[in-house]
């Protein structure tokens, strides 16, 4: 068994309150919290197997963006894949997701980046403000996958991070996983 783990850097971005921190904590510890600490930004490590290979993920949680926030330019050089999250129950956060992608392209100076679009809070069925169709269309436009998650119900959270690794690999021309 190889002990050579591959490093992949994942940065999680998106509007405030969409569930970025909750989704990360769900993935790391399988915990859900109702609490919201808006300004916390942190970096975590987790080992994960995808296909035959092992990875050491570095996951950066961010404080959350809005129209006016400035992205940390240091993300540009060191990020393998961006996870851009919104809440399917809050339309404004869907609009913020588009703005965040523009900001990433700005700091990166490229026309496309490795990213996954995430619609979280899929459990809030009665409160849905963004349809799956609409989100899928946006993802098609961005040439990236769309995944619906619920950090609350632990739905698709692990899949999200596995998918992120695969997209990072693809961007590196490392297609065999
Ligand atoms: P962040 O600002 O994006 O990091 O958002 P948080 O992770 O702090 O979550 C904001 C609020 O949304 C908290 O009260 C969480 O408990 C709640 N939350 C997060 N994910 C979900 C989810 O999948 N479903 C529901 N119903 N609530 C969620
Ligand atoms: Mg947070």
UniProtKB/TrEMBL annotation:
Organism: Coemansia asiatica
SUPFAM superfamilies in alphabetical order: P-loop containing nucleoside triphosphate hydrolases
One cellular-component annotation, GO: membrane
Keyword GTP-binding: yes
Gene Ontology MF annotations: GTP binding; GTPase activity
Entry protein name: GTP-binding protein
InterPro entries, alphabetized: P-loop_NTPase, Small_GTP-bd, Small_GTPase, Small_GTPase_Ras-type
The entry's keywords: GTP-binding, Nucleotide-binding
Gene3D superfamilies on file: P-loop containing nucleotide triphosphate hydrolases
One Pfam family in the UniProt entry: Ras
GO process terms (BP): signal transduction
């Amino acid at each position: 068994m190889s002990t050579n783990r591959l490093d992949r850097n994942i940065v999680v971005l998106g509007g405030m309150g969409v569930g970025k921190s909750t989704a990360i904590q769900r993935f790391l510890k399988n915990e859900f919290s109702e609490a919201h600490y808006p300004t916390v930004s942190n970096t975590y490590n987790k080992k994960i197997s995808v296909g035959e290979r092992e990875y050491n993920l570095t996951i950066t949680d961010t404080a959350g963006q809005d129209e006016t926030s400035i992205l940390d330019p240091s993300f540009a050089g060191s990020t393998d894949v961006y996870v851009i999250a919104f809440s399917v129950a809050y339309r404004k956060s869907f609009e913020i997701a588009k703005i965040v992608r523009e900001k990433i392209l700005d700091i990166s100076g490229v026309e496309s980046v490795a990213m996954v679009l995430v619609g979280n809070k899929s459990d809030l069925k009665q409160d849905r403000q963004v349809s799956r169709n609409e989100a899928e269309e946006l993802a098609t436009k961005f040439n990236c996958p769309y995944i619906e998650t619920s950090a609350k119900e632990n739905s698709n959270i692990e899949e999200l991070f596995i998918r992120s690794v695969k997209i990072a690999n693809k961007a590196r021309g490392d297609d065999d996983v």
